[in-house]
Amino acid sequence: MDNFHIASPNEEVSIDIKLVENKINYRVNQKGKERIGFSELEIFDNGNVTILGAKEIESDSTWQPVWGQHSSIRDHFKALQLEVDFDGVGGKLLARAYDQGVAFRIILNEGDKPTAADFKCTYNLPEGSNYFFPKGETEPVGPVKFAGLREVVTQEDGKVKKFSVPLVVESSDQSYIALLESDLYAARGIDPMRLNIGEASGNIAAVNSVSLNEEEWTSPWRVILLGNSAGDLVVNTVPVNLATPTQLDNTDWIKPGKTLWDWRVHGYTAPDGFVYGINTESYFRFIDFAAEKGIRYFLIDDSWYKHVSKGHFELSDQLDLQEVIDYAAKKEVELILYYDRKHGEYGDEGLFPYYQSLGMKGIKYGFMGSDVDFTRAAIQKSAESHLLIDFHDGPVPFTGIRRTYPNAITREYCHAQQDSRRAFTPESFIKMALINAITGPLDMNNGNFDLTGINSGKRQKGPRKTNSYVSTVVSEAARTLVIFSGLVCIPDAPEAYSAKADLFEFIQKLPVGKWDESRILHSDLSKYITTARRHGEEWFIGSVYNQEGGALDIQLDFLEEGKQYEVTFYEDTPETHGKTNPEAYQVRTGKVKKGDVIEAVMAPGGGHCMWIRPSK
Protein backbone atom coordinates (compact mmCIF):
# COMPACT_ATOMS: atom_id res chain seq x y z
CA MET A 1 0.00 0.00 0.00
CA ASP A 2 2.75 2.38 -1.07
CA ASN A 3 1.57 3.67 -4.49
CA PHE A 4 -1.57 5.66 -5.28
CA HIS A 5 -3.02 7.49 -8.26
CA ILE A 6 -5.93 9.88 -8.66
CA ALA A 7 -7.03 11.82 -11.76
CA SER A 8 -9.18 14.94 -12.03
CA PRO A 9 -12.77 14.73 -13.31
CA ASN A 10 -11.72 15.33 -16.94
CA GLU A 11 -8.69 13.02 -16.38
CA GLU A 12 -6.27 15.64 -17.72
CA VAL A 13 -4.66 16.33 -14.32
CA SER A 14 -3.38 13.54 -12.10
CA ILE A 15 -1.54 12.99 -8.82
CA ASP A 16 0.75 10.06 -8.09
CA ILE A 17 1.69 9.41 -4.45
CA LYS A 18 4.26 6.90 -3.26
CA LEU A 19 6.45 6.21 -0.26
CA VAL A 20 10.19 6.59 -0.82
CA GLU A 21 12.33 5.57 2.18
CA ASN A 22 9.29 6.11 4.43
CA LYS A 23 8.70 9.63 3.08
CA ILE A 24 5.61 10.78 1.16
CA ASN A 25 6.41 11.76 -2.41
CA TYR A 26 3.97 13.11 -4.98
CA ARG A 27 4.00 13.93 -8.68
CA VAL A 28 1.61 16.05 -10.78
CA ASN A 29 0.93 15.36 -14.46
CA GLN A 30 -1.18 17.34 -16.91
CA LYS A 31 -2.24 15.97 -20.29
CA GLY A 32 0.40 13.27 -19.99
CA LYS A 33 3.20 15.72 -19.22
CA GLU A 34 5.00 15.95 -15.90
CA ARG A 35 4.34 19.36 -14.31
CA ILE A 36 5.82 18.66 -10.85
CA GLY A 37 8.38 15.88 -10.58
CA PHE A 38 8.37 13.60 -7.56
CA SER A 39 8.64 15.85 -4.50
CA GLU A 40 8.41 15.38 -0.72
CA LEU A 41 5.53 16.32 1.55
CA GLU A 42 6.04 16.17 5.33
CA ILE A 43 4.97 17.53 8.71
CA PHE A 44 7.79 16.27 10.98
CA ASP A 45 11.33 16.82 9.79
CA ASN A 46 12.79 13.51 8.59
CA GLY A 47 9.94 11.63 10.24
CA ASN A 48 9.01 8.15 9.06
CA VAL A 49 5.60 7.71 7.46
CA THR A 50 3.38 4.64 7.18
CA ILE A 51 0.22 4.62 5.05
CA LEU A 52 -2.46 2.56 6.80
CA GLY A 53 -5.41 2.90 4.43
CA ALA A 54 -6.80 4.74 1.43
CA LYS A 55 -10.15 5.93 0.15
CA GLU A 56 -11.12 7.59 -3.12
CA ILE A 57 -13.70 10.37 -3.14
CA GLU A 58 -15.47 12.33 -5.86
CA SER A 59 -17.44 15.47 -5.08
CA ASP A 60 -19.44 17.71 -7.40
CA SER A 61 -21.35 20.67 -5.99
CA THR A 62 -22.12 24.29 -6.79
CA TRP A 63 -22.17 27.27 -4.44
CA GLN A 64 -22.91 30.99 -4.72
CA PRO A 65 -20.43 33.45 -3.21
CA VAL A 66 -21.69 36.58 -1.48
CA TRP A 67 -19.56 38.52 -3.97
CA GLY A 68 -16.74 37.67 -6.29
CA GLN A 69 -15.51 37.16 -9.84
CA HIS A 70 -18.24 34.58 -10.50
CA SER A 71 -21.82 34.44 -9.21
CA SER A 72 -21.85 30.64 -9.19
CA ILE A 73 -18.86 28.34 -8.65
CA ARG A 74 -18.67 24.65 -9.37
CA ASP A 75 -16.58 22.62 -6.92
CA HIS A 76 -15.80 19.38 -8.75
CA PHE A 77 -12.84 17.22 -7.78
CA LYS A 78 -11.61 13.69 -7.19
CA ALA A 79 -9.57 13.01 -4.08
CA LEU A 80 -7.50 10.52 -2.15
CA GLN A 81 -7.88 10.31 1.62
CA LEU A 82 -4.94 8.42 3.09
CA GLU A 83 -4.87 7.24 6.71
CA VAL A 84 -1.30 7.91 7.78
CA ASP A 85 1.02 7.40 10.73
CA PHE A 86 3.29 10.47 10.77
CA ASP A 87 6.24 9.32 12.87
CA GLY A 88 3.96 7.95 15.58
CA VAL A 89 1.19 10.55 15.24
CA GLY A 90 -2.02 9.46 13.56
CA GLY A 91 -3.64 11.56 10.89
CA LYS A 92 -4.69 11.95 7.27
CA LEU A 93 -3.28 13.19 4.00
CA LEU A 94 -5.89 14.66 1.66
CA ALA A 95 -5.00 15.04 -2.00
CA ARG A 96 -7.47 16.70 -4.38
CA ALA A 97 -7.27 16.74 -8.16
CA TYR A 98 -9.20 19.46 -9.98
CA ASP A 99 -9.21 20.06 -13.72
CA GLN A 100 -7.34 23.33 -13.04
CA GLY A 101 -4.92 22.25 -10.30
CA VAL A 102 -4.23 20.10 -7.25
CA ALA A 103 -4.05 20.58 -3.49
CA PHE A 104 -2.75 18.75 -0.40
CA ARG A 105 -3.70 19.00 3.27
CA ILE A 106 -2.52 17.17 6.40
CA ILE A 107 -4.77 16.57 9.43
CA LEU A 108 -3.26 15.35 12.72
CA ASN A 109 -5.53 13.48 15.12
CA GLU A 110 -6.18 14.46 18.70
CA GLY A 111 -3.62 13.10 21.15
CA ASP A 112 -0.03 13.40 22.20
CA LYS A 113 2.23 15.00 19.58
CA PRO A 114 5.33 17.21 19.40
CA THR A 115 4.74 20.86 20.32
CA ALA A 116 6.29 22.22 17.11
CA ALA A 117 6.48 21.13 13.49
CA ASP A 118 7.18 22.38 10.00
CA PHE A 119 4.53 21.68 7.37
CA LYS A 120 6.76 21.32 4.32
CA CYS A 121 6.12 20.68 0.66
CA THR A 122 8.82 20.60 -1.99
CA TYR A 123 8.28 21.22 -5.70
CA ASN A 124 10.53 19.85 -8.44
CA LEU A 125 9.68 22.32 -11.19
CA PRO A 126 10.31 22.11 -14.94
CA GLU A 127 13.84 22.88 -16.16
CA GLY A 128 14.32 26.14 -18.04
CA SER A 129 11.32 27.88 -16.45
CA ASN A 130 10.94 31.58 -15.74
CA TYR A 131 10.00 32.53 -12.18
CA PHE A 132 7.96 35.47 -10.84
CA PHE A 133 6.92 36.38 -7.30
CA PRO A 134 5.62 39.40 -5.31
CA LYS A 135 8.05 41.69 -3.53
CA GLY A 136 5.96 43.52 -0.96
CA GLU A 137 5.27 47.14 -1.82
CA THR A 138 7.56 47.17 -4.86
CA GLU A 139 7.46 45.68 -8.34
CA PRO A 140 7.22 41.87 -8.41
CA VAL A 141 10.39 39.98 -9.30
CA GLY A 142 10.70 38.26 -12.66
CA PRO A 143 11.25 36.88 -15.13
CA VAL A 144 14.31 35.13 -13.68
CA LYS A 145 15.73 31.67 -14.25
CA PHE A 146 16.39 29.39 -11.29
CA ALA A 147 20.02 30.50 -10.90
CA GLY A 148 18.90 34.11 -11.03
CA LEU A 149 16.18 33.38 -8.48
CA ARG A 150 18.79 32.30 -5.96
CA GLU A 151 20.77 35.46 -6.74
CA VAL A 152 17.73 37.71 -6.23
CA VAL A 153 16.94 36.37 -2.76
CA THR A 154 20.52 36.04 -1.47
CA GLN A 155 21.45 38.60 1.17
CA GLU A 156 24.79 40.35 1.59
CA ASP A 157 25.80 37.86 4.29
CA GLY A 158 25.29 35.03 1.80
CA LYS A 159 22.15 33.67 3.41
CA VAL A 160 19.17 32.88 1.19
CA LYS A 161 16.10 34.69 2.46
CA LYS A 162 12.48 33.61 2.21
CA PHE A 163 10.31 35.00 -0.55
CA SER A 164 6.60 35.58 -0.97
CA VAL A 165 3.73 33.66 -2.54
CA PRO A 166 2.46 33.08 -5.08
CA LEU A 167 5.40 31.79 -7.05
CA VAL A 168 4.42 31.86 -10.72
CA VAL A 169 6.30 29.48 -12.99
CA GLU A 170 6.29 30.06 -16.73
CA SER A 171 7.43 26.83 -18.40
CA SER A 172 9.36 26.72 -21.63
CA ASP A 173 6.23 25.43 -23.39
CA GLN A 174 4.36 28.59 -22.25
CA SER A 175 2.18 26.78 -19.71
CA TYR A 176 1.87 28.19 -16.20
CA ILE A 177 1.98 27.03 -12.59
CA ALA A 178 1.25 29.00 -9.42
CA LEU A 179 2.26 27.85 -5.94
CA LEU A 180 0.33 29.21 -2.95
CA GLU A 181 -1.83 28.14 -0.01
CA SER A 182 -5.50 28.41 0.86
CA ASP A 183 -7.72 28.18 3.94
CA LEU A 184 -5.39 29.52 6.61
CA TYR A 185 -8.64 30.03 8.52
CA ALA A 186 -8.70 26.32 9.41
CA ALA A 187 -5.07 26.20 10.59
CA ARG A 188 -4.18 27.34 14.12
CA GLY A 189 -0.81 28.31 15.54
CA ILE A 190 0.79 28.71 12.14
CA ASP A 191 3.01 31.20 10.34
CA PRO A 192 2.25 32.25 6.75
CA MET A 193 3.67 30.00 4.04
CA ARG A 194 7.20 30.95 3.05
CA LEU A 195 9.19 29.75 0.07
CA ASN A 196 12.80 28.59 0.25
CA ILE A 197 15.18 27.66 -2.55
CA GLY A 198 16.51 24.11 -2.63
CA GLU A 199 19.94 22.97 -3.69
CA ALA A 200 18.96 21.24 -6.92
CA SER A 201 17.86 23.24 -9.97
CA GLY A 202 14.12 23.76 -10.01
CA ASN A 203 13.67 22.67 -6.38
CA ILE A 204 11.56 24.97 -4.20
CA ALA A 205 10.24 24.29 -0.71
CA ALA A 206 7.15 25.79 0.93
CA VAL A 207 7.19 25.78 4.73
CA ASN A 208 4.83 26.79 7.54
CA SER A 209 6.16 26.76 11.11
CA VAL A 210 3.49 25.27 13.36
CA SER A 211 2.73 25.19 17.10
CA LEU A 212 0.85 22.04 18.11
CA ASN A 213 -1.05 20.82 21.15
CA GLU A 214 -3.09 17.72 21.85
CA GLU A 215 -6.10 18.88 19.84
CA GLU A 216 -6.77 17.88 16.25
CA TRP A 217 -4.73 20.07 13.91
CA THR A 218 -5.49 20.91 10.28
CA SER A 219 -2.97 22.38 7.85
CA PRO A 220 -3.77 24.94 5.19
CA TRP A 221 -4.07 23.58 1.68
CA ARG A 222 -0.92 23.48 -0.41
CA VAL A 223 -2.22 24.64 -3.79
CA ILE A 224 -0.73 24.08 -7.24
CA LEU A 225 -2.66 25.92 -9.95
CA LEU A 226 -2.28 25.00 -13.62
CA GLY A 227 -3.05 27.24 -16.58
CA ASN A 228 -2.54 27.58 -20.30
CA SER A 229 -1.93 31.30 -19.79
CA ALA A 230 -0.90 33.55 -16.93
CA GLY A 231 -4.43 34.96 -16.91
CA ASP A 232 -5.95 31.52 -16.29
CA LEU A 233 -4.37 31.53 -12.83
CA VAL A 234 -6.08 34.78 -11.81
CA VAL A 235 -9.64 33.54 -12.43
CA ASN A 236 -8.95 29.98 -11.23
CA THR A 237 -11.58 28.99 -8.66
CA VAL A 238 -9.59 26.23 -6.94
CA PRO A 239 -8.31 28.45 -4.06
CA VAL A 240 -11.80 29.62 -3.04
CA ASN A 241 -13.24 26.12 -3.48
CA LEU A 242 -10.67 24.90 -0.95
CA ALA A 243 -11.63 27.53 1.63
CA THR A 244 -13.91 26.80 4.58
CA PRO A 245 -17.52 27.70 3.66
CA THR A 246 -18.95 30.90 5.09
CA GLN A 247 -19.15 31.09 8.87
CA LEU A 248 -21.74 33.89 8.82
CA ASP A 249 -25.45 33.16 9.17
CA ASN A 250 -26.43 36.53 7.71
CA THR A 251 -24.45 38.27 4.98
CA ASP A 252 -27.10 40.76 3.83
CA TRP A 253 -25.10 43.63 5.38
CA ILE A 254 -22.01 42.87 3.25
CA LYS A 255 -22.11 45.17 0.24
CA PRO A 256 -19.20 45.36 -2.20
CA GLY A 257 -18.77 48.66 -3.97
CA LYS A 258 -16.66 51.65 -4.90
CA THR A 259 -15.28 54.18 -2.46
CA LEU A 260 -13.89 57.66 -2.68
CA TRP A 261 -10.80 58.26 -0.55
CA ASP A 262 -9.34 61.42 0.93
CA TRP A 263 -5.65 60.61 1.49
CA ARG A 264 -4.18 61.34 -1.96
CA VAL A 265 -6.32 64.43 -2.53
CA HIS A 266 -4.87 66.59 0.26
CA GLY A 267 -3.47 69.79 -1.25
CA TYR A 268 -5.49 69.57 -4.45
CA THR A 269 -6.87 72.94 -5.54
CA ALA A 270 -10.33 72.73 -7.11
CA PRO A 271 -11.30 75.01 -10.03
CA ASP A 272 -13.20 77.26 -7.60
CA GLY A 273 -10.06 77.74 -5.51
CA PHE A 274 -11.00 75.36 -2.68
CA VAL A 275 -8.00 73.44 -1.30
CA TYR A 276 -8.68 69.93 -0.02
CA GLY A 277 -7.41 68.83 3.38
CA ILE A 278 -8.41 66.98 6.54
CA ASN A 279 -11.45 69.08 7.37
CA THR A 280 -15.21 68.95 7.45
CA GLU A 281 -15.82 70.94 4.25
CA SER A 282 -13.50 68.68 2.20
CA TYR A 283 -15.36 65.62 3.42
CA PHE A 284 -18.71 67.20 2.59
CA ARG A 285 -17.50 67.59 -1.00
CA PHE A 286 -16.53 63.91 -1.23
CA ILE A 287 -19.89 62.88 0.20
CA ASP A 288 -21.81 65.14 -2.20
CA PHE A 289 -20.01 63.65 -5.19
CA ALA A 290 -20.50 60.08 -3.94
CA ALA A 291 -24.23 60.71 -3.50
CA GLU A 292 -24.51 62.28 -6.96
CA LYS A 293 -22.68 59.46 -8.74
CA GLY A 294 -24.07 56.53 -6.77
CA ILE A 295 -20.75 55.66 -5.11
CA ARG A 296 -21.59 53.64 -2.02
CA TYR A 297 -18.67 54.51 0.28
CA PHE A 298 -16.36 57.30 1.38
CA LEU A 299 -13.12 56.21 3.08
CA ILE A 300 -11.59 58.56 5.67
CA ASP A 301 -7.93 57.74 6.18
CA ASP A 302 -5.43 58.58 8.91
CA SER A 303 -5.46 61.76 11.07
CA TRP A 304 -9.15 61.79 12.01
CA TYR A 305 -7.80 61.20 15.51
CA LYS A 306 -4.78 62.66 17.32
CA HIS A 307 -4.01 59.98 19.87
CA VAL A 308 -5.10 56.49 20.88
CA SER A 309 -4.97 55.04 24.34
CA LYS A 310 -6.62 51.88 25.58
CA GLY A 311 -10.37 52.40 25.36
CA HIS A 312 -10.16 55.96 24.03
CA PHE A 313 -9.69 57.91 20.80
CA GLU A 314 -8.72 61.58 21.09
CA LEU A 315 -10.41 63.07 18.02
CA SER A 316 -8.73 65.55 15.71
CA ASP A 317 -9.74 69.18 16.04
CA GLN A 318 -9.28 69.63 12.28
CA LEU A 319 -12.74 68.26 11.55
CA ASP A 320 -16.05 67.58 13.22
CA LEU A 321 -16.35 63.83 12.77
CA GLN A 322 -19.91 63.64 14.08
CA GLU A 323 -20.99 66.34 11.66
CA VAL A 324 -19.43 64.34 8.81
CA ILE A 325 -21.17 61.16 10.02
CA ASP A 326 -24.53 62.93 10.16
CA TYR A 327 -24.06 64.49 6.73
CA ALA A 328 -23.12 61.14 5.16
CA ALA A 329 -26.21 59.54 6.68
CA LYS A 330 -28.37 62.33 5.28
CA LYS A 331 -26.86 61.79 1.82
CA GLU A 332 -27.08 57.97 2.13
CA VAL A 333 -23.32 57.54 1.72
CA GLU A 334 -21.68 54.93 3.93
CA LEU A 335 -18.38 55.57 5.72
CA ILE A 336 -15.23 53.51 6.18
CA LEU A 337 -12.72 54.66 8.78
CA TYR A 338 -8.98 54.03 9.09
CA TYR A 339 -7.15 52.64 12.11
CA ASP A 340 -3.38 52.35 12.54
CA ARG A 341 -2.15 49.82 15.09
CA LYS A 342 1.19 51.65 15.33
CA HIS A 343 -0.50 54.67 16.90
CA GLY A 344 -1.47 52.85 20.05
CA GLU A 345 -3.58 50.05 21.45
CA TYR A 346 -7.25 50.89 21.59
CA GLY A 347 -7.91 47.37 22.74
CA ASP A 348 -8.80 44.59 20.36
CA GLU A 349 -12.05 43.78 22.12
CA GLY A 350 -13.34 47.35 22.02
CA LEU A 351 -12.10 48.55 18.63
CA PHE A 352 -14.75 47.07 16.37
CA PRO A 353 -17.78 47.79 18.59
CA TYR A 354 -16.56 51.39 18.83
CA TYR A 355 -16.44 51.72 15.04
CA GLN A 356 -19.89 50.19 14.86
CA SER A 357 -21.16 52.69 17.46
CA LEU A 358 -19.96 55.51 15.18
CA GLY A 359 -22.13 54.13 12.38
CA MET A 360 -19.17 52.97 10.27
CA LYS A 361 -19.66 50.29 7.62
CA GLY A 362 -16.03 49.27 7.51
CA ILE A 363 -12.52 49.59 8.86
CA LYS A 364 -9.31 50.08 6.92
CA TYR A 365 -6.86 48.41 9.28
CA GLY A 366 -3.26 49.58 8.90
CA PHE A 367 -0.16 47.69 10.02
CA MET A 368 -1.90 44.52 11.13
CA GLY A 369 1.34 42.62 10.46
CA SER A 370 1.85 39.09 9.18
CA ASP A 371 0.37 37.28 12.19
CA VAL A 372 -2.13 34.66 10.99
CA ASP A 373 -3.99 34.17 14.26
CA PHE A 374 -4.27 37.93 14.88
CA THR A 375 -5.51 38.57 11.35
CA ARG A 376 -8.10 35.80 11.59
CA ALA A 377 -9.35 37.20 14.89
CA ALA A 378 -9.56 40.74 13.48
CA ILE A 379 -11.65 39.52 10.54
CA GLN A 380 -13.95 37.58 12.87
CA LYS A 381 -14.35 40.47 15.31
CA SER A 382 -15.07 42.93 12.53
CA ALA A 383 -17.79 40.57 11.29
CA GLU A 384 -19.34 40.44 14.78
CA SER A 385 -19.71 44.23 14.57
CA HIS A 386 -21.00 44.07 10.97
CA LEU A 387 -17.92 45.83 9.60
CA LEU A 388 -16.12 45.29 6.33
CA ILE A 389 -12.37 45.02 6.80
CA ASP A 390 -9.64 46.17 4.41
CA PHE A 391 -6.27 45.19 5.84
CA HIS A 392 -3.09 47.01 4.82
CA ASP A 393 0.69 47.31 5.12
CA GLY A 394 2.23 43.90 4.55
CA PRO A 395 -0.82 41.79 5.43
CA VAL A 396 -1.21 38.03 5.43
CA PRO A 397 -2.64 37.16 1.97
CA PHE A 398 -5.26 34.82 3.54
CA THR A 399 -6.26 33.32 0.22
CA GLY A 400 -9.87 32.13 0.17
CA ILE A 401 -10.98 34.05 3.27
CA ARG A 402 -13.59 35.94 1.24
CA ARG A 403 -15.60 32.71 1.11
CA THR A 404 -15.31 32.03 4.84
CA TYR A 405 -15.73 35.63 6.00
CA PRO A 406 -16.94 37.69 3.04
CA ASN A 407 -16.61 40.88 5.10
CA ALA A 408 -12.85 40.57 4.35
CA ILE A 409 -13.53 42.79 1.39
CA THR A 410 -10.00 43.50 0.13
CA ARG A 411 -6.35 43.90 1.20
CA GLU A 412 -3.17 45.63 0.17
CA TYR A 413 -1.18 42.54 -0.79
CA CYS A 414 0.54 44.60 -3.47
CA HIS A 415 2.14 47.96 -4.11
CA ALA A 416 -0.81 50.33 -3.82
CA GLN A 417 -0.59 53.22 -6.29
CA GLN A 418 1.63 56.01 -4.85
CA ASP A 419 2.22 54.06 -1.64
CA SER A 420 5.27 55.40 0.21
CA ARG A 421 4.80 58.30 -2.22
CA ARG A 422 6.15 56.21 -5.09
CA ALA A 423 4.30 55.67 -8.36
CA PHE A 424 4.47 52.22 -9.86
CA THR A 425 5.08 51.69 -13.57
CA PRO A 426 2.70 50.09 -16.10
CA GLU A 427 4.98 47.06 -16.01
CA SER A 428 4.57 46.82 -12.22
CA PHE A 429 0.81 47.03 -12.58
CA ILE A 430 0.66 44.24 -15.16
CA LYS A 431 2.84 41.95 -13.06
CA MET A 432 0.77 42.56 -9.91
CA ALA A 433 -2.44 42.02 -11.86
CA LEU A 434 -1.14 38.60 -12.97
CA ILE A 435 0.84 37.56 -9.85
CA ASN A 436 -0.35 39.15 -6.59
CA ALA A 437 -3.99 38.97 -7.72
CA ILE A 438 -3.86 35.15 -7.79
CA THR A 439 -4.17 35.29 -3.99
CA GLY A 440 -7.45 37.23 -4.14
CA PRO A 441 -8.78 40.81 -4.09
CA LEU A 442 -6.30 43.70 -4.03
CA ASP A 443 -6.65 47.25 -2.76
CA MET A 444 -4.41 49.04 -5.28
CA ASN A 445 -5.97 52.53 -5.46
CA ASN A 446 -6.10 52.91 -9.24
CA GLY A 447 -8.20 55.51 -11.04
CA ASN A 448 -6.40 58.86 -10.93
CA PHE A 449 -7.58 61.36 -13.57
CA ASP A 450 -5.55 64.49 -12.70
CA LEU A 451 -2.33 62.85 -13.81
CA THR A 452 -0.66 66.08 -14.90
CA GLY A 453 -1.38 67.75 -11.57
CA ILE A 454 -0.20 64.74 -9.56
CA ASN A 455 3.00 64.49 -11.63
CA SER A 456 3.78 68.18 -11.14
CA GLY A 457 3.86 67.76 -7.35
CA LYS A 458 0.68 69.67 -6.54
CA ARG A 459 -0.54 67.14 -3.98
CA GLN A 460 0.69 66.89 -0.41
CA LYS A 461 0.97 63.13 -0.72
CA GLY A 462 1.78 62.75 -4.41
CA PRO A 463 4.94 60.97 -5.58
CA ARG A 464 8.10 62.50 -4.13
CA LYS A 465 9.73 62.41 -7.56
CA THR A 466 7.83 64.60 -10.01
CA ASN A 467 6.88 63.21 -13.43
CA SER A 468 7.50 59.64 -12.23
CA TYR A 469 3.87 58.54 -12.63
CA VAL A 470 3.54 56.88 -16.06
CA SER A 471 -0.05 56.15 -17.07
CA THR A 472 -2.95 57.47 -19.11
CA VAL A 473 -6.41 58.35 -17.85
CA VAL A 474 -7.90 55.51 -19.92
CA SER A 475 -5.39 53.07 -18.43
CA GLU A 476 -6.42 54.33 -14.97
CA ALA A 477 -10.08 53.61 -15.76
CA ALA A 478 -9.22 50.15 -17.12
CA ARG A 479 -7.21 49.28 -14.01
CA THR A 480 -10.29 49.68 -11.79
CA LEU A 481 -11.83 46.76 -13.68
CA VAL A 482 -8.71 44.65 -14.23
CA ILE A 483 -7.91 44.45 -10.51
CA PHE A 484 -10.55 42.37 -8.79
CA SER A 485 -11.69 43.68 -5.40
CA GLY A 486 -14.80 43.86 -3.29
CA LEU A 487 -13.93 47.49 -2.56
CA VAL A 488 -12.60 49.56 -5.46
CA CYS A 489 -10.91 52.59 -3.93
CA ILE A 490 -10.69 55.48 -6.41
CA PRO A 491 -8.17 58.03 -5.15
CA ASP A 492 -8.72 61.32 -6.98
CA ALA A 493 -10.69 64.49 -6.26
CA PRO A 494 -14.37 64.79 -7.20
CA GLU A 495 -13.55 67.74 -9.48
CA ALA A 496 -10.96 65.67 -11.36
CA TYR A 497 -13.63 63.10 -12.13
CA SER A 498 -16.26 65.71 -13.00
CA ALA A 499 -13.89 67.28 -15.52
CA LYS A 500 -13.80 63.97 -17.40
CA ALA A 501 -17.36 62.85 -16.72
CA ASP A 502 -17.67 60.96 -20.02
CA LEU A 503 -14.65 58.80 -19.10
CA PHE A 504 -15.67 58.51 -15.46
CA GLU A 505 -18.87 56.89 -16.73
CA PHE A 506 -16.94 53.63 -17.16
CA ILE A 507 -15.96 53.56 -13.48
CA GLN A 508 -19.37 54.76 -12.37
CA LYS A 509 -21.16 51.92 -14.17
CA LEU A 510 -18.96 49.11 -12.78
CA PRO A 511 -21.03 46.74 -10.58
CA VAL A 512 -18.07 46.14 -8.28
CA GLY A 513 -17.76 42.65 -6.82
CA LYS A 514 -21.08 41.44 -8.19
CA TRP A 515 -19.72 39.75 -11.30
CA ASP A 516 -21.45 36.79 -12.90
CA GLU A 517 -18.43 35.82 -14.95
CA SER A 518 -14.80 36.90 -15.33
CA ARG A 519 -12.28 36.08 -18.06
CA ILE A 520 -8.71 37.10 -18.84
CA LEU A 521 -8.68 37.42 -22.63
CA HIS A 522 -5.04 38.44 -23.09
CA SER A 523 -2.15 38.11 -20.66
CA ASP A 524 1.60 38.55 -20.86
CA LEU A 525 3.50 38.99 -17.62
CA SER A 526 5.75 41.64 -19.13
CA LYS A 527 3.49 43.39 -21.63
CA TYR A 528 -0.29 43.50 -21.27
CA ILE A 529 -3.53 42.22 -19.81
CA THR A 530 -7.17 42.26 -20.98
CA THR A 531 -9.94 41.42 -18.52
CA ALA A 532 -13.62 40.92 -19.35
CA ARG A 533 -16.31 40.76 -16.67
CA ARG A 534 -20.04 40.18 -17.09
CA HIS A 535 -22.89 41.44 -14.95
CA GLY A 536 -26.24 40.21 -16.25
CA GLU A 537 -26.19 40.92 -19.99
CA GLU A 538 -23.61 43.70 -19.75
CA TRP A 539 -19.88 43.22 -20.35
CA PHE A 540 -17.08 45.46 -19.12
CA ILE A 541 -13.67 45.01 -20.74
CA GLY A 542 -10.42 46.68 -19.73
CA SER A 543 -6.96 46.42 -21.25
CA VAL A 544 -3.62 47.83 -20.09
CA TYR A 545 -0.32 47.92 -22.01
CA ASN A 546 3.27 48.50 -20.91
CA GLN A 547 5.39 51.51 -21.84
CA GLU A 548 5.93 50.22 -25.36
CA GLY A 549 2.24 50.57 -26.17
CA GLY A 550 0.56 48.32 -28.69
CA ALA A 551 -2.66 46.81 -30.01
CA LEU A 552 -4.66 43.73 -29.01
CA ASP A 553 -7.44 42.04 -30.97
CA ILE A 554 -10.39 41.43 -28.66
CA GLN A 555 -12.73 38.76 -30.01
CA LEU A 556 -16.31 39.20 -28.88
CA ASP A 557 -17.13 35.51 -29.15
CA PHE A 558 -18.65 35.50 -25.65
CA LEU A 559 -21.64 37.63 -26.69
CA GLU A 560 -25.03 36.02 -27.31
CA GLU A 561 -25.73 34.81 -30.82
CA GLY A 562 -28.23 36.84 -32.84
CA LYS A 563 -28.30 39.79 -30.44
CA GLN A 564 -27.23 43.37 -31.21
CA TYR A 565 -25.23 45.26 -28.60
CA GLU A 566 -24.41 48.89 -27.98
CA VAL A 567 -20.82 49.63 -27.03
CA THR A 568 -19.07 52.64 -25.58
CA PHE A 569 -15.33 52.80 -26.26
CA TYR A 570 -13.05 54.72 -23.90
CA GLU A 571 -9.74 55.06 -25.70
CA ASP A 572 -6.32 56.63 -25.87
CA THR A 573 -5.88 58.91 -28.88
CA PRO A 574 -3.01 58.95 -31.39
CA GLU A 575 -1.56 61.84 -29.36
CA THR A 576 -1.81 60.12 -25.96
CA HIS A 577 1.41 59.13 -24.18
CA GLY A 578 1.84 57.87 -20.62
CA LYS A 579 4.72 60.27 -19.96
CA THR A 580 4.14 63.32 -22.15
CA ASN A 581 0.37 63.50 -22.78
CA PRO A 582 -1.41 61.29 -20.23
CA GLU A 583 -4.83 62.98 -20.18
CA ALA A 584 -5.71 62.82 -23.88
CA TYR A 585 -8.60 60.43 -24.49
CA GLN A 586 -11.68 59.89 -26.60
CA VAL A 587 -15.10 58.37 -26.02
CA ARG A 588 -17.22 57.03 -28.88
CA THR A 589 -20.13 54.66 -29.31
CA GLY A 590 -21.00 51.92 -31.77
CA LYS A 591 -22.73 48.59 -32.38
CA VAL A 592 -21.21 45.13 -31.96
CA LYS A 593 -22.31 41.51 -32.14
CA LYS A 594 -20.97 38.05 -31.39
CA GLY A 595 -17.90 37.26 -33.47
CA ASP A 596 -16.77 40.84 -33.99
CA VAL A 597 -13.10 41.60 -33.39
CA ILE A 598 -12.18 44.94 -31.79
CA GLU A 599 -8.67 46.27 -32.22
CA ALA A 600 -7.76 47.89 -28.90
CA VAL A 601 -4.98 50.37 -29.66
CA MET A 602 -3.10 51.62 -26.63
CA ALA A 603 -0.56 54.38 -26.15
CA PRO A 604 2.72 53.80 -24.28
CA GLY A 605 1.56 53.11 -20.72
CA GLY A 606 -2.00 53.29 -21.99
CA GLY A 607 -5.27 51.44 -21.83
CA HIS A 608 -8.58 50.66 -23.49
CA CYS A 609 -12.10 50.16 -22.06
CA MET A 610 -15.43 48.92 -23.40
CA TRP A 611 -18.89 48.91 -21.88
CA ILE A 612 -21.13 46.56 -23.87
CA ARG A 613 -24.89 46.15 -23.28
CA PRO A 614 -27.85 44.86 -25.32
CA SER A 615 -29.39 47.35 -27.72
CA LYS A 616 -32.72 48.72 -26.59
UniProtKB/TrEMBL annotation:
Coiled-coil region: none
Keywords noted in UniProt: Calcium, Glycosidase, Hydrolase
Keyword Lipid biosynthesis: no
Domain Glycosyl-hydrolase 97 C-terminal oligomerisation, chain residue ranges per copy: 514-612
Record Pfam families: GH97_C, GH97_N, Glyco_hydro_97
GO MF annotation terms: carbohydrate binding; hydrolase activity, acting on glycosyl bonds
Matching InterPro entries: Aldolase_TIM, GH, GH-type_carb-bd, GH97_C, GH97_catalytic, GH97_N, Glyco_hydro_b, Glycosyl_hydrolase_97
Domain Glycosyl-hydrolase 97 N-terminal: 6-245
Glycosyl-hydrolase 97 catalytic domain: residues covered: 265-412
Record flagged with keyword Oxidoreductase: no
Gene3D superfamilies: 2.70.98.10, Aldolase class I (3.20.20.70), Golgi alpha-mannosidase II (2.60.40.1180)
Cofactor(s) in the UniProt record: Ca(2+)
Subunit structure: Monomer.
Protein name: Alpha-glucosidase
Record organism: Echinicola strongylocentroti
